[in-house]
Amino acid sequence: MERPGGSAGWVPGFVVLSMIWGSSFALIKVAVDAGVAPLWIASWRCLFGLAALGTVCAVRRAPVPRGRRVWAHAFVVAALLNSVPFALFSYAETRVSSVVAGVWNATTPLTTLLFAVALIREERPTPRRSIGLATGFCGVLLVLGVWRGFDGGTLGGSLACLGATVCYGAGFTYTRRFFAGREESVVALSAVQILCATVELALVTPVVAGSPAWPGPAAAAALVGLGAVGTGLAYIINLGVIRAAGPTVASTVTYLTPLWSTLLGAMLLAEPIGWNTVTGGLLIVAGVIVARAPRRTERAAVSVPGSPGPRGRGVRARE
Known about the structure:
Layout (H helix, E strand, L loop, with lengths): L10 H23 L4 H23 L7 H25 L5 H8 L2 H12 L7 H18 L7 H27 L7 H24 L7 H29 L1 H5 L1 H16 L6 H17 L4 H5 L19
Helix pairs in contact: 1-4, 1-9, 1-11, 2-3, 2-8, 2-9, 3-7, 3-8, 4-7, 4-11, 4-12, 5-7, 6-12
């Protein structure tokens, strides 16, 4: 693996990855506005993502992981990192703009850190981390606009976004403890994870949301892109960035996704951008940077591929 600080050949992939994940919120909004139920958005997203990852597995001839323990952990990881947060973000965008949802997504490293500090021995609270968490929390209050009181619909959407990032935080921590060190290839484990998420949603969605309906060509294209590109191809690009630049650098993609979600929401969907959303988003990103700044001992350590980064699912980088 190329060490961070070496050749910057990973930068194009890093930028493309931030664009893909940043655009996912606009694609969700297109589907929502076409009347697609939130659970069906999550279901189609996982199904198309599974098709993309399954194709890559077939081409690479990656063996399917075996053993009950692998699949049991995969079902938990899938619920925390895919099926539940995908559904929550889709529901949230029935009440808030894609701009606001994208800003909320930037809290993922903070929720991950909270779970890591609570559950992982090596992760300990420090003054720097405490300041970072407090700064990020102030950003959250700004995005909520607490001084204006709470509108029921907007508050519900924001809480759904926050619930999704809490799931991500718990999921990354769980992945680090129980799923990250397995010997199977990243692509195979990712495919198994998305398969589990697809099954979970398939058991619930028809019962809760009824039968699917044709949403129109624009929404259908958005769903295919959301799944095949945002949940399939993006996993592979993320792996390449982790291998070339290290997991710490790869994790900073979260700082750029709100930029793309805000630009696309404003330019393509004509969504308004409030001053509190921009300022709060900047405070959240600043809090993340401060809280996640490596200590001296961590800077001296050699990065090992497989540490959990955003949506990289934390599985070991291995062919």
